Structures are given as structure tokens and as C-alpha cells.
Amino acid sequence: MGEILLSRYDLFLKNKTHTHATTNLNAEELGERYGERVRSRMREMLNVIAFDSNSVDKRV
To answer: Residue 17 contacts by C-beta under 8 Å, 6 or more apart in sequence?
Structure first.
């Protein structure tokens, strides 16, 4: 998954290609699982929308 995210980051820099992603992991867990390099690039190319743990499920 880390390699996929890094390749999407390259596309973002070259072509402004958009990527949408969802996760149940917080920022610290993303860094632990994929490394700080991937986490940093995700922060650069994605808009973060955080939901409270008590919020209603947003899936349709």
C-alpha cells in the first residue's frame, strides 16, 4: 500500500491527479504502518476530514 501511495504522489506532482482515500487509522498509526515518508506525502496530497468516534456512519 505504501508503494501505491508513493506512486499516486508522483502522479499528483506531475499531473495534479487526484486521489481519494479513507482509513480508520489516525495519523500516528499511519506513520507506524507505512512510515513517516508516506504519511507526510499523504498529508500533502489529501484533504483530511476527521470524524468524531461517536459520529454516525457516513457510508451509503
So the answer is: 8, 11
